[in-house]
């Protein structure tokens, strides 16, 4: 009996440890002579680990009061009777994760104002739309920054072509900041889906392999500036703000003070007449 060919679905199932023992053995044989495929699978596993690190802590957070208020009393009673309070808390947290991309990340904690220079330029309040910007940027960073083979869609080897391509897709000129003096060089970028249109992501890397991503969105409908704010999701720190029609979010695994210094440099370079 001939063996079935190894498909992309098999490779994803292999990365997630979902194959049967016999099928896994066949995939092991397939990968033995294909190190590049094994490297790709490891990158998927690294991405999965980053996402778990980002979202697993949410499962242990208390259920937000507004969620309790929105649960019908009879349904709530039935859930408690059949599953108990612990199940309700975990179910509610998982539900909020699913909704986070559309209504903003309720798990964003500790929004703060950094330097006086930035505060002088920007306001003090952020809407749910701005919080959603930070959440989406953190998720995009967690997914793509660990990638070994293809962290960016277009490399910085041809930066002019990269910028022209992303500017055309976004529908407005983009100017990726220069961070060489701070130890970070542009690796390249990629196009991502936003809430209402395309989003650009630029990725930077230092000599030690630490990566930062700048998420640039034009989803913002109102040309009103917002406060320069900070959010932390898992091990990812994010500084984010809206400037006119642009939404920006700088994400990285470095500490808050170091990221703040880089975010100031990014803001100063982007704060030019357009």
Automatic annotation (TrEMBL):
Keywords assigned: Membrane, Transmembrane, Transmembrane helix
Tree of life domain: Bacteria
TM spans (from-to): 91-109
Protein name per its UniProtKB record: Membrane protein
Record lineage: Bacteria, Pseudomonadati, Pseudomonadota, Betaproteobacteria, Burkholderiales
């Amino acid at each position: 009996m001939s063996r079935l060919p190894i498909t992309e679905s098999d490779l994803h199932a292999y990365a997630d440890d979902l194959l049967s023992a016999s099928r896994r053995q066949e995939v092991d044989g397939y990968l033995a002579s294909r190190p590049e495929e094994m490297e790709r699978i490891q990158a998927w596993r690294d991405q999965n680990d980053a996402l778990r690190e980002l979202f697993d802590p949410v499962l242990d957070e208390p259920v937000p009061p507004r969620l309790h208020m929105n649960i019908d009393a009879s349904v709530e009673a039935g859930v408690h009777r059949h599953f108990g309070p612990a199940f309700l808390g975990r179910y509610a947290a998982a539900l909020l994760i699913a909704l986070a991309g559309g209504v903003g990340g309720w798990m964003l904690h500790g929004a703060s104002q950094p330097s006086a220079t930035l505060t002088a330029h920007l306001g003090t309040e952020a809407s749910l739309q701005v919080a959603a910007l930070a959440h989406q940027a953190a998720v995009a960073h967690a997914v793509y920054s660990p990638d070994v083979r293809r962290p960016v869609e277009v490399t910085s080897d041809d930066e002019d072509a990269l910028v022209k391509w992303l500017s055309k897709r976004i529908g407005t000129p983009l100017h990726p900041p220069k961070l060489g003096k701070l130890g970070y060089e542009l690796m390249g970028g990629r196009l991502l889906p936003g809430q209402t249109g395309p989003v650009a992501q630029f990725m930077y890397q230092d000599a030690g392999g630490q990566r930062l991503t700048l998420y640039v969105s034009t989803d913002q409908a109102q040309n009103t500036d917002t406060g320069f704010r900070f959010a932390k999701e898992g091990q990812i720190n994010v500084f984010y703000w809206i400037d006119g029609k642009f939404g920006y979010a700088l994400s990285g695994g470095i500490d808050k003070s170091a990221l703040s210094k880089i975010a100031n440099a990014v803001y100063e370079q982007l704060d030019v007449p357009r």
